[in-house]
Fold this sequence. Notes:
- Chain A is an all-alpha fold and about 900 residues long.
- Chain A is about 65% helix and about 5% strand.
- Chain A has a four-stranded antiparallel beta sheet, with helices on one face.
- In chain A, strand 3 and strand 4 (about 75-80) form a beta hairpin.
- Chain A is flat.
- Chain B is mainly alpha-helical and about 140 residues long.
- Among the domains of chain B are: about 5-65, no CATH class; about 105-145, no CATH class.
- In chain B, about 40% of the residues lie in helices and about 0% in strands.
- In chain B, helix 2 packs antiparallel against helix 3.
- Chain B is rod-shaped and about 110 Å long.
- The chains are: A mainly alpha (about 900), B mainly alpha (about 140).
Amino acid sequence: MAVLSVRAPLCWSCGADARTGADACGSCGTAVGAPPAHADSIVGKVYPLRRGIRKRHLVCIGLEDRSARLLFESGETELLALEELPEPEDLALGREEAARLRTPAGRLLQIAVACRAGTLKRKWDTEALEEAALASASDVGSARSIALDALALGRPELLSRLPLSDTERHWLTAVDAVGRAEAATAIEAVCCLPQDRYRPKLVLLASVLRPARDGGVRLGPAIKAQVEPFAAGEPLAALLVRVLDGDYDAEPSIELTTPLRRLVERTAPSPARRRDLETALDLIDGRPPAAAGSSPGPLPRGVRTLLALSAPGLDLIGEDDIDHIPMPLLDDLIEAGAVDAGTTLAGSRDVHRTRYLLARLDPGALSDADVDHLAHLDEQARRAFARDDAAGLNALGSSDVVLGFQALAAVRRGEAGEQEVERIVPGHRDLARALLRLARTHADGGSVNEGLSEQMVADPSVWPVIVEIVGSTALEPTHELLERFPDFCQWLALHQAREHLFLGSWQRAVEAADLCLSLAKLEAVRDEALNLKACALHYLGADGRAVGALEEAIQGERSEALLANLGIVAAGLEPEVAASHLGMLMDEAPTIALRVSAAKQALSIWRDSDQESWRNSDNSPLPDAFQDPLRRLAVAELELADFRVFAGVLAIYDADWLADRANIATSPHADSLEARFFTARAENLSKMIGVMGSAMAAGGAPEWVLDERDSLRAAAIDILFENLDEPDSTFGSVALEMVERRVLATPDDEVLFGALGIASVTYHLSAREEEVADHIVERVQKLRSDWQQLEAGDRDRVEPVVELATRRVTINRLQARAREFDQAVDVFNSAIDLGGSAPPGSPAYSEALQRCRRVSATCRAIRDELRPWVPIVDHEGVREDLDKLIESSRELEGRCLEILG
Amino acid sequence: MLERNPYLILGVDFAASGEDARRAFAHAARRLRREGGVWEIEDLNWALHEIQALDESPADTVTIYRVPANGEVFVSGGTGVFRPAPIPLRRRTPAHDEDSLREVRRNSLRELDRLVLEDLERMQMPVNGYELEDAAWATEDGSKT
Lengths: 901, 145
């Protein structure tokens, strides 16, 4: 057998290796050899026979002499001479299955199985059929054939009734179970075999080991015991022992891999696979692979790691491998170029390994804390040097790297001596000496321009050092310098422009910025030069040019810094331009805080300017410059306080928009008191006072609501007093609403606002010759009552307003009654005319009397209403008018009564 | 009177920290005594106080002119003698470490055993217990059928 080293025939009965060519087993004497392929007879065939008037079906269950023994469905049997048998009947049982059966007994078993399952509608005694089938096993050969048929029919339990050894039955069961992919059954059967027999069981075990493990079958010592006796001679057995033990502690050796190599030779399914496995074996042996291909097939991780070490160019290591490779080998792989930095860092999950690998492959990505944690002295020194931390650098000891950086730091300060220069890496020493010469030239007052060399400006990292040594303004960007080092001059000019701004040298800053602009190609550099120039121009008072420079800078890419600067520079000269750029910032700034600042600044600029000149394309007062950005900002993720500010602005200056609650529905503060308050304010003052009153009624109204109340109170008082003699009653209604909603802080304020409101509303109605409603009259009466309750000082303070309200209501009602009286006089006169010419008792006379009665009632009502006002109205003229009307009504009533008798 | 910008007055970049402003104050004051300038010492005091008392992030203000608007363009690019590249850590593990190699070789043997078993799993098994010689695993070439 190819997989096995020993390829002897097997004694099926005892499992011993038999001699090739022997007929019987040398160990147990049982016949060796496979059972006959097929045997045929009439046994198991079905015959239709007429018995009486009915046709019966009979199965042949045996042969006796030249007769067949037939089984009836009744269970009876009968012998019939062979020549009397009719043609057998085809039962149409599974033909493929039937073809596989080796024996006539197998046919009997097949009929029994079909009858039991109901697939054959016959009533033959299945036990009798099986008994007959098994009884036909006359020798080991036929028993083995019947056993195979029983297994083929799924009846392994019948094997126990055949004359076979127990071990042979277990062997057959194991092979059958493997064929059916029943790993547990196979394992169980193998475990029943004698341990040192049935060598081919090794292959069966190898094929079911993984499925058995996956299926949760416990692979205990019994399995290992079945394998171990063969371990010395069969590489597969040795492999199974390793797998079952899980013991790989021993160092792989040639002694161990040689048998495995032989097994691989026999089992590899393809040449390529064999080559890959042999390569793996070479690597496990610690030898260079003899036959590694340029593109090996899928290999496991360990093998790929070993292969990558010997063949780094094969790109064998992936991200998933990184955490599984021992760090020393991963370092080997990195150094050999077998794995790149991206793969390594992407695959590393362990914090400690990742920190180490970062330090190895991408040290710039390490945090300072990580560098310290790793005690990576060279990188610590580099970082200390980069941040000009002399103390930090000195604390790192005296390695060559530290000494080198210390020397460079001294050069940077222009203070290094030759001894220090010698500590710098040789390739940089000439540069250091040139810089030191430049420093001396500068100190001696010489021309530093001439000291600049190609070597210095070729390295941009030296530029800041040059500026540090001689200062940016000491270098003159001469024509020669511009010719020789344009990149350096551009960079230098930018620095000079900034430095001149710091020194307040505005004109020189403009010149330096212009020089930079003449050299710079990069947009970012040009934008910055324009920014510096605009700043200088702003300080020179040339805001128009400054705005122009910044507007040029924001063409293309624009930044919040440039927009903010434009807002500042343009504010004095072109406020609308400034506000429109702040409007952009309100939309585009990277932080809410900056957007809010821009909005506040834009509002400030607008309020301080001549608002009439601003472009405004709708009816709201807010200008186009920032109206939409402000609306968008109002619904952004603002702090509540900022929302309050902007909602307050919009309530006044963009009321129609804010009044529509849907416009702020997306604001995180859409349900806040602020939102309710200011949208109500946007609708009208009355609704706002309603929200204010609700907030106060709920108790603990926030401070800003009280401030709004006080602000409204102050405005209302100013307007009401200013317009006391104007017929506009708008704020009179507001004042009364404030009283009704109880938003005012003190009783005297309530009296004051009530009186002002009544006075205003009454004046408005009187001017229209309309009578105040009765509830106003009632409010006056209550107002006077409340007024009486006030402290003396407050009472005196508000008395004039209370008197005014009383007087105006009195006059209003007096005028209304006077109008009624005039009408009554007309009615009275018409009654006199009518009654005077009509005979008593006539309808006209009755009508005249009726009119007199109505006039009399009217006069009484006028007197009844006016009399109470007389003592409370504190105005002589009004009192006289009241008295006159009262008297006139009395006279008219008297005349009516005379006529009425 | 000139519009006062606290950062310009002290000679520091916009949004410099209070600590940077304090250092710049000392420098600017010395320069003022030595060379004079457009600002007075009162301006320097005011500027330092403004920066130290700023109650919002400078980046969120729109009332102070920003110099520079983009600080990155003032940095000369690339690495060089005075801006050395980060220094990779030298390896701290032994090269060609035998213990690690042994560990990987042992793991490889485990993996190889598994591969061989996988190959055997894919082989055709005998159709019955008596006909082993016909099975693929029993033939010389071991090929699958």
